């Protein structure tokens, strides 16, 4: 259809014709090739005319067409469209103003697809007219429409028209008090500072301050306070310099008696406080106490209601409601609640706004200041509990939410640190008043409040210590039961929240004695379990699982009570409860048409039931297993069924599956699944087969086992360590349980197990090596059994089994880089096999190993022999071999470092076998002075002994070797003074490796003997002052050489750095030790060395602080401000530490301060999520900028990781300073091109650097920063979009990130 025909039909009387022609035109306009031709002006006029059509559908279609036309016509016609729509908004008919406003916003949205110059010209011509409409029009509707247009334009193109910013800001600010609806104007004006420069932004803040200081009109002040809150929300970090003045003004208003009844004003002030707390958490810090006090005072502001007339809420723990009054309240039921609302929820009574505002402030404080959680319990908790009786429901919900947040922060803190005994006491203290108050409120609460009550109780359960809520069972169960049987509030979310609470209550409290009472709700649970609401059904299934666990605990208790001839619950009653529980779950479990999530949950819960109460369900288990077997055949439920089957099989209950057919069928089916390509199915099939063969081996047959073994041989490779590990475990179980599989496994799997031992995977997969050794051990056990049974022929001897290992070692002339791990794995295998072998085989092997040490045929053989003897010696006393210690000691003199290390390891481990005999010999060698100094090797030997005691530090008293380890440790500690003297004497060694080894020994001894070591380290550090005096004396005596002065200085530096470095090892264990708390108390004595002028001493201190920040941040938390000051100093490049080294014809630059800078940046990176104080530091962004620009890639990578975290968690800080960071980002992306020679050997690091920079850019773009920052948009266009390689990499990062986010969602 031609344009002329379209125009003609647009004039049709029939609105259907007009609509269809516009619809056809819109489809044509979408085509980029479509041309309008000469009739463009006529067409535009006609479409603009139809925007005010009498038909709403035609109007809508006309707007779509005019939007699309913007991309098809020239600039003059675009101006014409904008001029027409603007005039119609300002001067047109009132009835069509909204339509023209929508059209103008729509046309603005299409400007994104045209050139920027046109956007700027259109903006410069249109926006002033719109602003004039806001300024001069008397119509509130015109002003509202104009502000809507301004808001839309600013958010899309505000960054392109900086020349208009000041005018827009002025007009909107002045017009605010005259508007009937201020919301859009406030949103626009608060968004503008994200685009404006500092002078204009501060002009806006000064204007607000001036109004608040001088204006007496409450209504106007309230609007400007709301504006301030919105500005804080958008650009909180920019308010720094003005925040103090604004906050003081607001506090002045709220404390002024003449404003105390101005509800809307106080509500706006609280809203502003909340915005400051959430968006300027550091800047508002000085006023936290004042805001907290004001909020606590006004939380109970209710001039129209006298709380004293009610039965007072006793939040000190005592019962304030008698049983009689409580029962009477219940009898009144719903009518009491209705009367409550009728009396006090008056439309003209708005005091609830003040209470809500104060609550919101408290909620914001608790969210942003979790470090003050103890203060909240002291000052806030009781007040919140007293306000649980709040009469307005929406305020009550906020009160509950605030207390929920407090409990959540409590739980997080208790999970983070196990030493918060005070916090645990605080939770225990509030438990009773919270439960009492909620119990009183429950019956008179609305549906939403009841749901929130159960959420609050759930959080209380999780934050409380185990069994601490047992005394409150009656009240809690009563409310829970009320929720289940409530006919008035028949709501699935309500029931699910109640069930979720009680399930958690069961998890954290042993309710065995209350089981009969709990069984009274089974009838209702039976209704819920088949509910059409999936979430309710799932929660009910889960609580059934938890009740079954309670039955299991009770059954165990009953067994213990049998000796006393008492029973907690009759066995028949327990049996009845178990069967009822099973029948409930089974009603869902056997249904096939259920939702997938419900079906999967029912399978998991059924396996849990059989695991926990299988002894009561013997007659029903086979039927359940058959259903589970059927579910296993269905693709969607296969994995979950196999997992559940595994749980059932490992239950260890008295009952056994009696049907041979079921077991045979399971084994056949699972063996088929081993051939499936689905890795997860294969994994859990292996796990299930291991359990079946362990428990039901007698039901298997040779055909199934042969099939399994043939499949296993293909799985045992280092390509998939997890599957290989499980396959080796299954092979081990087969050998132990089925002697007739021994030969087949030796023929097919042993060679694969040997390949695992010599694969390079040991370094990552120690479990894989252990499983391979486990298979070998099973075979050796089988050999021993066959030897003892004369009738059974021996098809493999011990020496034949280890022969391939020995031959592999003998085939090696030297030890390559990755051979060390392989030799250790083979030595571990041989030694563990020898310990379970016959005495003849053991002696033969040991003699052979000793012969290797004497003759030293090759480095690999000697190394292998030393590691093998070490592994044997740690478990078996080798003191009867008198020359053994001397032979090993002589190995220290060998030229090979591999043999020296192995000899130290060997001597240390055989010493553990008989510490009394060997330790005396080792310590004696420290005193022997010879031309060979073996102190380094001897210290490594001592380290092995210390490592043994660290490993067995918390050994269970019930273990057989507990007394033996205790005696060894006592003997070791009796020589500790001697050991420490030897270590301290070598602290000043010039060999760095030796000093590091001493640090490790001292640190690990500190874990064993905290007070002794810490005091000695502190004494040694303070005694360094004596060395300072010696240095001064040498300087005075000119006769002394400069060499002796330098040596003395170095010895002082080495001593201090070694001692400080030992602290890193002292806090290295994952769990909290006594040494950690001791170091925390004495921390100031160590971190003071950050002020030391020598970089090595500072490096040692930084290493300790970095380890603390990584593993145990709480150790350094109290001294964070001091640490930050010095960490930021260490990030600067120190030119004095930069030198050069000549190597042949090349000259290399050496930066001795590099490690200090690297550790400083890494520590800041670790602290960023823990430490709010870090972001308060002025110039912190400059530190980030310098790190990205640092000449070393290692520091660039650490800083970019820090930068990414800042984008994710403190985008406002980055947004304000983004222009500073664009050039550093550009350098990161182009570094490889500029420094090709320098980074030639760091290709992988360089790729990682580019990826990190691109990821940061992706996160920035995700926040729409390009629309707000023209410089960043220009950088992205020129550096990334115009570079083919970078653009491809960036698109890949976007794709991968999107996929990851989708998975997380």
TrEMBL record:
Family per record: Belongs to the CAND family.
Pfam families given in the database record: TIP120
Organism lineage string: Eukaryota, Metamonada, Anaeramoebidae, Anaeramoeba
Domain TATA-binding protein interacting (TIP20) residues, every copy: 1115-1279
Species of the source: Anaeramoeba flamelloides
Keywords: Repeat, Ubl conjugation pathway
PANTHER family registered for this protein in UniProt: TIP120
Name used for this protein in its record: TIP120 domain-containing protein
Span list, region Disordered: 312-344
